[in-house]
Amino acid sequence: MSKRVWICVLVGCCIFALPVFAQESKQPSQAEMEAMMAAATPGPHHQAMAKTVGTWEMSSKMWAAPGAPPMESTGTATIEGIMDGRFVMETIKAPMMGMPWEGRGVWGYDNTSKKHMGIWFDSFGTMMMNMEGTCDGACKVVTMKSTYMDPMTKSMKTMKSVSKTLSDDHTVNELFDVDKDGKETKMMEITYKRKKA
What we know:
The chain has two helices and twelve strands. It has helices at 30-40, 44-50; strands at residues 4-11, 14-21, 54-62, 71-82, 87-96, 99-110, 115-122, 129-135, 141-149, 156-167, 170-178, 184-194. Strand 1 and strand 2 (14-21) form a beta hairpin. It is globular.
């Protein structure tokens, strides 16, 4: 049996644990090498994400309470491919509640866990939301959830995101608050339309 030593490496602000084989151990097997290559190779899910790369005009509706009239705003979303197509990074700039606002997300698909994943942060807070979920067979609908601490109530809450690709140039993202009983309340709807050159 080979020995494996875990070494913590500090990169930027993140600590990664990397497996390092002891001197007396053997090299990774062919099967292990193939598994690592499969984990690193972009596939159909990444190709679907690549179709979102570009500049989008966006409009949003946000409901402060069920039945209340929505607050509406418009803005621009820029999506770029990073890490040779393994991830996409989104930057949104739009006024929100009468104030300048910017949000950023990094989205990807993990070949190993078979999950869509993302991280979101914006200028209205200091938290980072981790999201995870799945898509339908054609990746036209991506559903993800995030558990986060509500800054107003200081309690943990769950948000559900449903992103629907209606065409290569038209996407709708719906955000829902999910209570402890699983009841969903629509909080926000964002419509993306690809900006024409």
